[in-house]
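Dear colleague,

Thank you for sharing your sequence with our group. We've completed the structure prediction you requested, and as agreed, I am returning the results in plain text so they can be pasted directly into your records. Please verify that the sequence below matches your submission; if there's any discrepancy, let me know and we will rerun it promptly.
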Amino acid sequence: QVQLVESGGGLVKAGGSLRLSCTASGRTFSTYGMGWFRQAPGKEREFVAGITWNGVSTSYADSVKGRFTISRDNAKNTVYLQMNSLKPEDTAVYSCAARVYASFDYWGQGTQVTVSS
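Please find the predicted structure tokens below.
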């Protein structure tokens, strides 16, 4: 079992930055990959960024490449999402997820990010 708790969401103006954090408990954090997803009102949930268990490999949605950075600190059981140059279209509920087995098996409750124009 893995429990995930996100923090760091909020209201920011376009062009601004936010850093989201997701702290895990339960299963040993350094044994599984992590991802960030988001869901805007009326839209389906979409993948934002992912990172392997050791942080060596990362992946991003095209819409956030060059603006967002995913990282992890296994000593702190935490994965981060640094979001720069934010746009109004980045407004969504952001959730982290743990990829313990073949898919993203465990999810946090989400944190709201609102970008004003």
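Summary note from our side: The first strand starts at residue 2 and ends at 7.

Kind regards,
the structure core
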